[in-house]
Write the structure tokens for this entry.
Amino acid sequence: MKKHKKPNHSRVGDTQREGLAERLENFWLGEVEARPVRVFECLFTLTFLLWMGRCFLTWEEWLTEAGFHLTVEELASMGYPEPWPLLEAWQVLCFAGLILGGSVLVLLNRWRRLGLITLFLCALYAQRVDYMAAFTLNKLYVGIYALLAMGPGLWRDTTTGRLMQSAVVLRVLQATLILQYAAAGLAKLEGDWLTGHDILWTQVQGVYRTEVAAWALRNLPLWAWAVQQHVSLAFEVGAPVLFLLPKLRPVALMLGIGFHLVIALMMKDLIFFSLQMWTFYVLFLPNSWWKWIPLPPRSEVIQVPA
Amino acid sequence: MEAETKPLPLYPLIYGAAALLLWLLPFFWSGWTKRSVPFLPKSVSFQYNAAGLFTNRSTRWWDHHLEVQAADDTRHELAERAVFPMGAFGYRTRYDRILNESHRSRMSGEIRQRLAEYVVGKMRMRGDEDVFSGVADMKALRLVRTVWLVGGEELAWPKGSWQPPPVTGVPGTQRLVLGTYRLVDGQVIEVPRKTEVPSIVQPSRQPSPPPSGGLLRPRLPVAVRPLPPRGVDSLDHVPREAK
């Protein structure tokens, strides 16, 4: 959705006030270029398409009465909310069409908010129709599409032609990634991760084990597993510091990319989760990196005013 | 020139506050504590439970199988993917996940019964040779869990990705029958569970640590614990569902 008029809530004042309060205010509510969020939502949508595409390979089992589905009572006894209704075959086609249509709108930045709302509803349905085929990444799709759909709109700066947005959306998305890592790290601290050096080693052996993981199990000494375990833990617990301090951010990005690469290589199908997480990383790229990204979304091409 | 202050942008302010209260804080708290957010209905609090995975040492891993007993009492494994083609992360299917999660349900018996009926119904519909030679030849169906000890040769020194052997080749000490169902006049009838001597989970050989040079030795589950009686499948903590 394009807006060419700058809204009234701009915080560009004639005189800059110094002080923590104003810096904080600008950090959260100031104007920023919308490109990072736009690139993020496009990549995020591509990962959603991939994930949905994978689920649709077995659409009959997933979405229709042809599959085994737990009843309301059975799900309730396992702590799940009430499931949403299953679909007829023709409705499955409509559902696929909605996902595709919403994605196209978002990718092309046409009726963007409508596209985001559509994708939010599709993600919510995909999660609620069958909890046995939904995972953490489904919850993130629901939450992130809700945040994007409800976010303050974009507008084009009339002097620079740049697509702008309130910083609050960018900050909330960044905080989502950081807090997810921090929560996961703290949960591991409260779990067993400090009780030994072999926790990761025990986890890689199981049902997620890929050929790469099997090779690593055969060839890596335990100290190598211990290093991976403690670096992962330090990365997750230290994510707030690593991602927030600009000087440490390159370290955070490199560690994070490696972290998810190892997960993707060693745990079957978790490539979908790694891809989803990597999309968040564009939100932390330094401004200088953006000039090296050659293809901004079409509607964001800077129009030099006459 | 006097400093000019403008009012705070209202919508971004409300959006930020709402995102903090309704997304970031509960998401963080629930991921950290692995608990549902209090004061929220289950359908909402469920949404935040999205982190805090793989927090504990794994001592066992398990897999689920569909085993058919033919009329001549021979046993065969059904191709699980032919009945449950949808994957559920890792080398698992929805069948694995349903059995994994239903262990904490008071309705686990009903769920397994329905699963058995579903499998038999699928076999009747398909009649595939690749699944099983035919439902007419089927005497009983078993839902079986095989248990593998971390540190055992099969897991710590694997030849490849997770591919447990066919259930028919797994020693009885590593098998747990979750339910046995006979086909009688087209009906799927559960065979009452016997109070048998519990199976014992044992690795086929002594656990072997990886080549660590003895510097850091893994904590292996040295005590071989007896399994609960058949049908009581609280073997260990069930890892929360992966990503």
